[in-house]
Design goal:
Layout: E1 3-5, H1 6-28, E2 38-40, E3 51-53, H2 54-70, E4 78-80, E5 85-87, E6 93-95, H3 102-113, H4 118-129, E7 144-146, E8 150-158, H5 160-165, E9 170-171, E10 178-180, E11 186-193, E12 199-209, E13 217-226, E14 229-232, E15 244-247, H6 253-259, E16 264-267, H7 271-279, E17 285-288, E18 293-294, H8 295-307, E19 311-314, H9 315-324, E20 346-347, E21 351-354, H10 357-367
Parallel strand pairs: 4-8, 15-16, 15-17
Antiparallel strand pairs: 1-7, 2-3, 5-6, 8-11, 9-10, 11-12, 12-13, 13-14, 17-21, 18-20, 19-21
């Protein structure tokens, strides 16, 4: 099977994320159509309400189509949160297919949206098939990837509840970070090794940057961690004073109490966004004690942490090690990634994300 340059692969993923961002904005900002294309997931164990939108499915299928177009060998190794079924505006289940034929793809979109929305359909087709111009380029890196050793996890729209609600965003107490709203929405494309099961490349696209009156745009972050090569387009970071920990608004009271002895707690929406804020240095740690995330939530931002010299580890395992030893292996209990069928793809043991090792030790000491 083919070998490819990591730089070329990364640039394809960056372009895929921007196509996805354009679709997510177009669907969300159509106030009359969007509410008709939202359905509540049944039996969700993550939130009181969990949603799936037409945009989720179209974004995921668009990313898959373009990756497979560039690298057909990866067809069986791309996994995502959603299937390719959507509810049409008249309430019917429709299978959404994107092919190399614009006509076939248009017919599939028409089944979901109706043929009368020709202008909107035409714009979507441009988003799917048109050029994806970004001002983000991967750096020159010499690393080679073997396609047979690569898998991909996609979360088409992370923080879907924020996406559905569509609020402009409530700033957090941390400058530059948000508590909730559209700025917390991310598109996540994570590449992992099927041999070592570690993240290799992550692309995180924030599609709702800016103000609605000026028009939203994307902010794209990427990180690569392959062997000894660690590169990204993230800023150089320094520890905050006081130290800050990103947590969920539903985090358990006893966890909050323990962490608050050292950390300023910052509530944020979206697992991907919380981990991104840690990789950006807006917060120093991401802590989650509940089993409410999946591999598609964490693979991409985990790669960003690794590219910064940090990691994402299982909270329960590392606390158990601390209880039975005086030392903590900072690389032990790293979150690992498999295909959708190989192993359960839920993160069931809680999570700690960090860049600086001293922060992990602080969290473990507080929660032990």
């Amino acid at each position: 099977m083919a070998e490819i340059f990591a730089k070329d692969f990364l640039n394809v993923l960056i372009e895929c994320s921007e196509r996805a961002a354009r679709i997510s904005r177009r669907c969300r900002l159509d106030g009359s159509l969007f509410p008709l294309l939202v359905e509540e997931k049944e039996g969700s164990d993550r939130f009181v309400q969990d949603f799936k939108t037409f945009a989720d499915v179209l974004v995921q299928q668009t990313i898959k189509f373009h990756i497979e177009k560039s690298y057909p060998e990866l067809r069986q190794n791309i996994y995502g949160e959603e299937n390719n079924e959507v509810r049409s505006i008249d309430g019917k289940k429709v299978t959404l297919n994107i092919t190399s034929s614009k006509e076939e793809t248009s017919e599939s979109l028409e089944q979901a949206l109706g043929a009368e929305r020709r202008k909107f359909l035409s714009c979507l087709l441009d988003d799917i098939f048109g050029p994806a111009e970004t001002n983000v380029q991967a750096l020159e890196v010499p690393d080679i990837l073997k396609l047979q050793d690569v898998g991909i996890w996609i979360d088409p729209i992370d923080a879907t509840n924020e996406y559905v609600q569509g609020s402009e965003g409530i700033p957090s107490e941390v400058p530059g970070a948000y508590r909730s709203g559209l700025p917390c929405v991310t598109i996540l494309i994570g590449v992992f090794s099927t041999v070592t099961h570690e993240p290799l490349i992550g692309v995180v696209n924030q599609p709702f940057i800016g103000a609605p009156e000026d028009g939203y745009c994307s902010k794209i972050w990427w990180g690569l961690s392959i062997g000894g090569t660690k590169v990204n387009n993230l800023p150089n970071i320094h520890l905050n004073s006081p130290a800050k920990a990103a947590i969920s608004s539903s985090e358990r009271p006893e966890i909050r109490k323990s962490l608050s002895d050292t950390f300023q707690l910052v509530e944020m929406a979206g697992a991907g966004y919380k981990i991104l804020c840690t990789a950006l240095g807006l917060t120093d740690a991401f802590v989650l004690s509940k089993s409410t995330t999946y591999k598609y939530d964490t693979c991409a931002p985990h790669a960003l942490l690794l590219s910064q010299g940090g990691n994402l580890v299982e909270l329960d395992g590392i606390l158990d090690e601390k209880a039975n030893s005086d030392t903590v292996d900072m690389q032990g209990y790293q979150v690992t990634y498999f295909s959708k069928t190989e192993k359960p793809y839920k993160n069931v043991h809680g999570l700690i994300g960090f860049v600086e090792g001293s922060i992990l030790l602080d969290v473990v000491d507080l929660l032990s």
